[in-house]
């Protein structure tokens, strides 16, 4: 009597494990970035650039903020290489550790107010911020591939929203932590040590993320490439040779999303919490013992830090809701069509900055809600859109480079440009809104030049 043994099925990642592993990494990614972005506005100018006037210190703080974006394309090449050579799982673990350790070290860093650290504190802040960027360069693409390469047929865009949902979650956690600290600590205590807590607390999230990711198995799409012996020897060279057009289109498809993202978070917090008149600003500077230059002052909205953080958190709730809504819409109508209509909405939205910012608290809250709704609708489908542009054996590298080069063009310079435009317009936001609209026009052109990717062969196709 003969017996036959059925072939053992390859181990698969459960839906819950895919959601958890892709969501936790991007939640940490955006938590870390929001923590820094918030600190860059609220405390870093005074702590790391105390010898500069208020406007210059803020611009210096944003310049360090941009250092991570310079590092991100480098990280995308390094982690993309290993992600396409050895697999998604191990690369995701390494990117998470790089990002998390750098964030914790920022929380341990002495400030420039510490004797002997006047030079080293800002220099090390730049270094740790750069290391954050290296880890971030490989994080998003790996998480997006983890989700979409494990997705059932016809659900890639839906699964692709899992890592995208980490953005609003990370934002809410980071800003709730800052809000709780600021409500329970005196301003002097928050300035002295309270700002460190969010950076140090990220270690908890990193430990949870590592626990989940170490339980993963390799994605089916990449495993097919390995089984067929079609792993690219040099993914970077291969992707530039076979998919250079997709690299360019992917970068500009992501441009408006990044500009909108950082205008809605970093710039609005700066503009919203800046005094609305020079007398109030002068009194606040005197109370803080800081010099005040009336000639360099530009007016903002005059909200307190806590008031505006609460408004931002409310807005980001809509970001999360519409990130989830975007997945089914992108499956039904296609990525290209849905993103095109959303981008047209962003163009119009940029032209509404002045009337909405000038309409009191209702107008500001309306602007935040509309902006974050558009953010969810444009960011959600990117988890599927960018990876679908590239073959499996260079997908990590290709999507990572597009995503992170776009971060330089769209996000690294967005807060810096927005502050400069706001100052150039002497307190008006019309140039900032126009900047957003023009960025969206570029994205719309890239979308119209691209092809619909909804039905592309995703598993095992190689360049």
Automatic annotation (TrEMBL):
Q: Which GO terms describe its cellular component?
A: plasma membrane
Residues in Major facilitator superfamily (MFS) profile domain copies: 18-454
Compartment(s) where it occurs, according to its Swiss-Prot or TrEMBL record: Cell membrane
Gene3D superfamilies of this UniProt entry? MFS general substrate transporter like domains
**InterPro entries per the UniProt record, alphabetical:** MFS_dom, MFS_sugar_transport-like, MFS_trans_sf, Sugar_transporter_CS
Molecular-function GO term, any one: symporter activity
Q: How does it sit in the membrane?
A: Multi-pass membrane protein
Q: Name one Pfam family in it.
A: Sugar_tr
The UniProt keyword set, sorted, is: Cell membrane, Membrane, Symport, Transmembrane, Transmembrane helix, Transport
Regions that span the bilayer: 57-80, 92-113, 119-146, 158-181, 193-214, 247-269, 308-326, 338-356, 362-380, 401-422, 428-447
Query: What family does the database annotate?
Result: Belongs to the major facilitator superfamily. Metabolite:H+ Symporter (MHS) family (TC 2.A.1.6) family.
Give the protein's biological function: May be a proton symporter involved in the uptake of osmolytes such as proline and glycine betaine.
Q: What PANTHER family does the record point to?
A: INNER MEMBRANE METABOLITE TRANSPORT PROTEIN YHJE, SHIKIMATE TRANSPORTER
Q: Know the name of this protein?
A: Putative proline/betaine transporter
């Amino acid at each position: 009597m003969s017996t036959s043994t059925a072939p053992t099925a390859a181990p698969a990642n459960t839906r819950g494990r895919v959601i958890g592993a892709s969501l936790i990494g991007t939640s940490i990614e955006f938590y870390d970035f929001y923590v820094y972005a918030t600190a860059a506005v609220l405390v870093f100018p005074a702590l790391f650039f105390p010898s500069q006037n208020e406007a210059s210190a803020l611009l210096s703080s944003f310049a360090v903020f941009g250092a991570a974006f310079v590092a991100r394309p480098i990280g995308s090449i390094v982690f993309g290489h290993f992600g396409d050579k050895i697999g998604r799982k191990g690369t995701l673990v390494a990117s998470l550790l790089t990002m998390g350790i750098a964030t914790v070290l920022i929380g341990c860093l002495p400030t420039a107010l510490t004797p002997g650290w006047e030079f080293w504190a800002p220099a090390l802040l730049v270094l740790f911020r750069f290391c954050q960027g290296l880890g971030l360069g490989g994080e998003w693409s790996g998480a997006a591939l983890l989700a979409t390469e494990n997705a059932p047929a016809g659900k890639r865009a839906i699964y692709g929203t899992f890592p995208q949902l980490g953005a609003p979650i990370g934002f809410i956690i980071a800003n709730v932590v800052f809000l709780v600290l600021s409500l329970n600590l005196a301003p002097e205590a928050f300035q002295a040590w309270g700002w460190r807590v969010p950076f140090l607390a990220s270690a908890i999230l990193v430990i949870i993320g590592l626990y989940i990711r170490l339980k993963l198995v390799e994605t089916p799409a990449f495993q097919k490439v390995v089984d067929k012996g079609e792993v690219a020897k040099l993914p970077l060279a291969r992707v530039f040779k076979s998919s250079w057009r997709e690299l360019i289109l992917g970068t500009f498809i992501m441009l408006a999303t990044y500009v909108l993202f950082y205008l809605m978070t970093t710039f609005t917090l700066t503009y919203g919490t800046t005094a609305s008149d020079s007398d109030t600003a002068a009194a606040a500077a005197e109370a803080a013992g800081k010099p005040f230059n009336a000639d360099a002052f530009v007016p903002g909205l005059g909200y307190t830090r806590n008031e505006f953080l609460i408004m931002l958190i409310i807005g980001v709730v809509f970001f999360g809701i519409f990130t989830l809504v975007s997945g089914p819409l992108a499956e039904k109508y296609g990525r290209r069509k849905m993103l095109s209509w959303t981008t047209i909405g962003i163009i119009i939205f940029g032209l509404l900055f002045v009337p909405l910012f000038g309409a009191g608290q209702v107008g500001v809250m309306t602007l935040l809600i509309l902006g974050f709704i558009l953010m969810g609708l444009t960011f959600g489908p990117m988890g599927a859109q960018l990876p679908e542009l590239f073959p499996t054996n260079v997908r990590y590298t290709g999507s990572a480079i597009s995503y992170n080069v776009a971060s330089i063009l769209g996000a690294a310079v967005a807060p810096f440009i927005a502050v400069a435009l706001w100052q150039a317009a002497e307190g008006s936001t019309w140039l900032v809104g126009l900047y957003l609209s023009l960025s969206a026009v570029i994205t719309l052109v890239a979308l119209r030049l691209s092809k619909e990717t909804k039905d592309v062969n995703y598993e095992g196709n190689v360049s």
